[in-house]
Design goal:
- The protein has 207 residues and is mainly α.
- Helices cover 81% and strands 0% of the residues.
- The chain has nine helices and no strands.
- The chain starts with 9 loop residues before the first helix and ends with a helix.
């Protein structure tokens, strides 16, 4: 049997805080060392599927991201997500944050398709937690539109950005800068989608 979170002694928490402090100071090697020690202690005391263990995995993932070890960062962040999904559920804010962190990591590795997968999960969570017309839900639609544009899926970008704009117009009004930014993005995506369609038609004509 593993101990409960209350059994995680102060020294273990202090080690984790030391890792955070070193990260803030830019001392990444020290942060990794202390974070690794904290993770091992949390696994031993709380077990491999505990919220505090998830927190230690998440911190290490962030530190490793800053060191440039993106692959290992993704491994640890995936463990964070697995624990949060299992222990907290799909709709918990910590789980949603885990999706968002994975999106950042996959973007950094230029793995846009995988980033899109977790953006879609974030969107679903925001829809369930906040509602289909919430501003944060609009932000998820916008992020997906941007990601789709990176793989030149402009027609799909248009669809998602249209939803973004509709929500922001209803919630914030047409004068809000966020609404205006969404309108500008939509205009750009539409222009790129038209270019693609024309290129396809021209290519077909040539053939």
């Amino acid at each position: 049997m593993f101990a409960t979170s209350s059994s995680a002694d102060g020294r273990t928490l202090l080690v984790l805080e030391s890792s955070k402090t070193f990260l803030d100071k830019g001392k990444l090697e020290d942060s990794v060392n202390y974070g690794t020690k904290a993770l091992a202690k949390f696994i031993a005391v709380c077990g491999p599927y505990h919220r505090m263990t998830a927190g230690a995995y998440n911190l290490l993932a962030i530190v490793l991201y800053y060191t440039g070890d993106f692959n290992q960062a993704i491994i640890y962040q995936q463990k964070t997500l697995n624990i949060n999904e299992r222990e907290l559920g799909l709709d918990h804010p910590d789980t949603v944050k885990s999706y968002g962190d994975l999106v950042v990591f996959y973007y950094r590795l230029q793995q846009t398709e995988l980033a899109l997968k977790y953006l879609q999960e974030t969107l679903k969570c925001n829809q369930r937690l906040l509602g289909a017309d919430h501003i944060q839900t609009a932000a998820s639609y916008h992020a997906i539109a941007i990601a789709l544009s990176l793989i030149e899926a402009y027609s799909l970008s248009v669809q998602h950005e249209q939803t973004t704009l509709q929500i922001l117009q209803a919630k914030l009004g047409v004068e809000d800068l966020r609404t205006q930014d969404a309108a500008a993005c939509l205009e750009y995506f539409v222009s790129k989608a038209v270019e693609q369609q024309e290129a396809v038609r021209n290519g077909t004509t040539v053939i």
